[in-house]
Amino acid sequence: MIFSSIFFIFVFLPVVLAIYYLVPFRYQLKNLVLLLASLVFYAWGEPIYVILMLLGIGINYVGGVEIEGYLQAGRERNAKVACISIVAVDLAVLGFYKYYGFVLENINAILPIDIPYHELALPIGISFYTFQTISYIIDVYRQKVEAQHSVITFGAYVCMFPQLIAGPIVRYSDVEKQLSKRTLSLEKFGDGAMWFLRGLGKKVLLANTMGSVFDSIMALGAADTSVLTAWIGCFAYTMQIYFDFGGYSDMAVGLGKMLGFEFMKNFDYPYTAKSVTEFWRRWHISLSSWFKEYVYIPLGGNRGGTKKAVRNLLVVWALTGLWHGAAWNFIFWGLYYGIILCVEKYILKERLGKLPIVCQHAYTMLLVMLGWVLFSAPTLGRALAYVGTMFGIGGSGVADATGLYFLGTCLVPGIISAILCTPLIYRRIPRITRAREWYKQVAGAMIYIGIFVVSTAYLVNATYNPFLYFRF
Amino acid sequence: MKLRVRKMSEKEQLRQEPMRKKRKKGGRLFCRIMAAAFAGSILLLALAGLLLPDRDYSEEEKRVLASFPKASWDGIQNKDYMEDLEAYVSDQFVLRDMWIRFKVQCDLLMGKREFNGVYLGKDKYLMQIPETPAEAEVAKNLQAINLFAEQNQELRICMMIVPNAVCVMEDYLPKGAPVRDQEKDAKELKEQLAANISYIDVTAYMREHVQEGLYYKTDHHWTSKGALRAFEAAAEGLGIESPLTDYEIYTVTNDFSGTLSSRSGYHKVKDSIEVYAPKGTEVKYLVTDSDDIKERPTVYDKDALNGKDQYQVFFGGNHALVDIRTTNRTNRTLLLFKDSYANCFVPFLLPYYDEIVMVDPRYYYDNVQMLVSNKKVTDVLFLYNMDTFLNDRSIADVLAGE
């Protein structure tokens, strides 16, 4: 089930919220409702793999309690072994379902053998919830958090439906307290509704619109793509991926608030970054901070000299790429960023900051957009060919009628998208919604209701409503 | 002066108030309205959906709407049940038609000119975007057609693949909108045909008459006028000498809303369907088809005008086999392999053949060679529109049929 669907908004959500609010205010009961709702939510899309998830919950629940027991008994070694083995099990399950086909395909390609295999369907959201359970196990071992002794609460944490299929990766330490103590109020619900509608609008109105432009452009042959068309396509995808992913995160934040949770923000106006390093501090924050905390720093971070730090960065970024999907273009995409980050860190250093601001933005956006070409292309060859077209190699000239057609169709949504990538409007919203005058607040609410109405219209006749994270 | 001072101090005071407190107080009403409006509108629409009766059929979308699915263990395991339930909720959503119209309106406002595979062109012309064909299927069909031609050297075999609106009405497309080059397709088809098949290209002639309304605005078919112009261009190639030029024109409906309106959700225009009766001929004929063996003296189905698809006024839609026996004595029998474009074209052919046999390969499973000998066929015509022909998956099977 995806959030941006009529069924979720008008059937699943009201039923779940009604039960959730009606059960007596004991967090165990609320958590039980949350757990059951999340299992239904997951089973809706993965009726078989929900068993896999239940197993995962069981193993990590027992593991957490066990590690804590060892630590309390002073048996450090046993705790370490338990921690490593449970993380290994989590990774093995993730690896098996996500990378089995990819690994065998490459082995078959390299070695003169042919191991038969058939590609397994990837359980949706497995990368997100596995990373959550790993963070929990490691944090218990590091004694950053206490083990969760209620299997219901733990289960509710792992498969909480707002962040289950498209993040953010909520770390246990961030919600530990909220799991046993959180407040529900009319105001918080309304705030959540605002966040949800903001995300819904981003996904349905902007991401889908830009996505359909991108898909139409990709459907053209290379020979019919001019430089102009290629750039519009690249721009359209850049907008699509941000508003899609950012929209999901906003919806998750909103749903979380309705259930009484506060999640950390996952996107912080990434396209306003002035360097690629800054971009990654603002893009999918929960993922990059996860890798920093659980891979980069344990590898030694930047403490072992430049050589080691570069190695660590490249390892982390290759893994980050691989996390996005089991395919070479994702690995190259990760390494592409690893290399850029190394260059920024060790070669450019402060020099970048001395350029005019406009140049810094242009530099960052250029690299990010080229990165998205790599990310979206089915193969590396196609990506390179597309980049070639963007710079006038192999296309149909600088601009043609087709390019102008696409410019016309995505001019209005494109400009709106570009503006909404920046804090320009968002910064002004609180002046209306939090104004002292009542009529301004009413007007603010009207804007969001308007977004809701239009989004609903687009969902009722959803001829194009893709889910981008099926490979994550 | 005093007033001014007081105002200043008020402002100062405001500024000194702790930010958080002010915000919380200020946004409370907003949050409450949001909560009430969000929960209220969801409940209202959900309840209305529960209370209002389900619809079986959507007139605007021209399709059967999903009904409440039956739960089964298998259905749940393979997700069919979930998908059906989601389709049900979406199809039966309150005021579905209104939402769709509203969406199209918003799209138009945003500058969008493509709706679900349909372009909205000049003069409110809706034009279906041709699909990208599966090359292998096209090659297979052509091979079968060439083989058929080889085995039937004594027949006059013609192929007329009619370009779609996007090609003939190029100038009506949204400026620069990308479409498949059907002229190139036609050229490639021509090159691949066996020597004894003559390819009839009507594109240029139709383009000359493009302002006459050769295609429906709301439907993917050509109009009777379009068929007439194509007939004029094709008559010589079909071996029809001195074709009739005078017709009585009857408008049978003025509120035709076709497949493209349904598909795009754009309902701002209606079409007329016209029927052409040739003057200066006494020809009479009897029609039977594989779905109705009762002989009738007309190719038109009046009842279709009250039905879901008024284009079915021609022959009552597609049938596996239609047989028309006329009172002509020309010693010519035409075997026609066709799609629905032929349905409004065949009336123009009636005065020139003793018998016309229409085969729709999508529904026909019998032996074609038998038909050729039994009916003493003299002429064969393949009549399709380009989009259907390039995406057809049945011609080869029918021609190869035992």
Describe the structure.
The complex is a heterodimer of chains A (472) and B (402). Chain A has 472 residues and is an all-alpha fold. Chain A has two domains: 177 residues, no CATH class; 273 residues, no CATH class. Chain A is 71% helix and 0% strand. In chain A, helix 3 crosses helix 6 and helix 9 packs across helix 15. The longest helix of chain A is centred in the first third of the chain and has 35 residues. The model of chain A has no long low-confidence stretch (mean pLDDT 90). Chain B has 402 residues and is an alpha/beta fold. Chain B folds into two domains: 49 residues; 269 residues, no CATH class. Chain B has an eight-stranded mixed β-sheet with strand order 7-6-15-13-14-12-10-11. Chain B has a three-stranded antiparallel β-sheet with strand order 3-4-5. In chain B, strand 4 and strand 5 form a beta hairpin. The termini of chain B are far apart. Classes of the chains: A mainly alpha (472), B alpha/beta (402). At the A-B interface, helix 1, helix 8, helix 16, helix 17 and helix 20 of A face helix 2, helix 4 and helix 5 of B.
Q: How would you describe this structure in keywords?
A:
heterodimer, A: 472 residues, mainly alpha, B: 402 residues, alpha/beta, 8-stranded mixed sheet, 3-stranded antiparallel sheet, 15 helices, 39% helix, disordered N terminus
TL;DR?
By secondary structure, chain A is mainly α. Chain A is 71% helix and 0% strand.
Strand residues, percent of chain B: 15-25%
Strand arrangement in the largest pleated sheet of chain B: 7-6-15-13-14-12-10-11
Q: How helical, in percent, are the residues of chain B?
A: 25-40%
Task: Count up the domains of chain A.
Answer: 2
Helix proportion of chain A: over 70%
Q: Using DSSP, what is the number of strands of chain A?
A: 0
- Overall average pLDDT of chain B: 88
Sheet with the most strands, sense and barrel status of chain A? none
Calculate the terminal CA-CA distance of chain A, rounded to whole Å: 16 Å
What does the radius of gyration of chain B come to?
29 Å
Structural class of chain B: alpha/beta
